[in-house]
Specification:
- With 99 residues, this protein is of the alpha+beta class.
- Helix content is 32%, strand content 28%.
- It has 3 helices and 6 strands.
- The strands form 2 sheets. It has a 3-stranded antiparallel sheet with strand order 1-3-2. A 3-stranded antiparallel sheet has the order 4-5-6, with helices on one face.
- Strand 4 and strand 5 form a beta hairpin.
- Helix 2 packs across helix 3.
- The longest helix is centred in the middle third of the chain and has 13 residues.
- The protein is globular, with a radius of gyration of 13 Å.
Length: 99
C-alpha cells in the first residue's frame, strides 16, 4: 500500500496540471494534507501556480502545473526544502523574491 504522499505525487505526475479538488477526488488524502504538500512543492519550485479559476460550484480554486518531474518516488518534505528520493537531491524552499 502506498502512502498518501505517494498517491498525491502519482496523481500530480499523471495529470501534470491539477487543482486541490482534483487531487481530493483521485487520492485518499485529506484536503489539509493536500494543501500542505502542494504548498511545500510550490515553495521548492517543483510545481507552479498557473491560474486561478472557478470550479463547477462557483468556488475559486488555483490550478498548478508540475514544473519538475523528479521520477517515480515522491519528494519528501524536510526542514528547509524537499528531498528527491530518486536522485538523492535537495530542493530548498525559495523566498517569495526568488525566481
Amino acid at each position: 500500500m502506498s502512502t498518501r504522499s505517494q498517491q498525491l505525487w502519482n496523481a500530480i505526475r499523471i495529470h501534470r496540471v491539477f487543482t486541490v479538488t482534483l487531487l481530493k477526488t483521485t487520492t485518499d488524502a485529506s484536503e489539509s494534507l493536500i494543501n500542505n504538500y502542494v504548498w511545500h512543492l510550490e515553495k521548492s519550485g517543483l510545481v507552479r501556480r498557473v491560474t486561478r479559476t472557478t470550479n463547477a460550484t462557483g468556488k475559486s480554486c488555483v490550478k498548478f502545473r508540475l514544473a519538475i518531474d523528479l521520477g517515480r518516488l515522491y519528494p519528501k518534505t524536510q526542514r528547509g526544502g524537499m528531498w528527491d528520493q530518486n536522485k538523492q537531491t535537495f530542493y530548498p524552499f525559495k523566498d517569495e523574491n526568488d525566481e
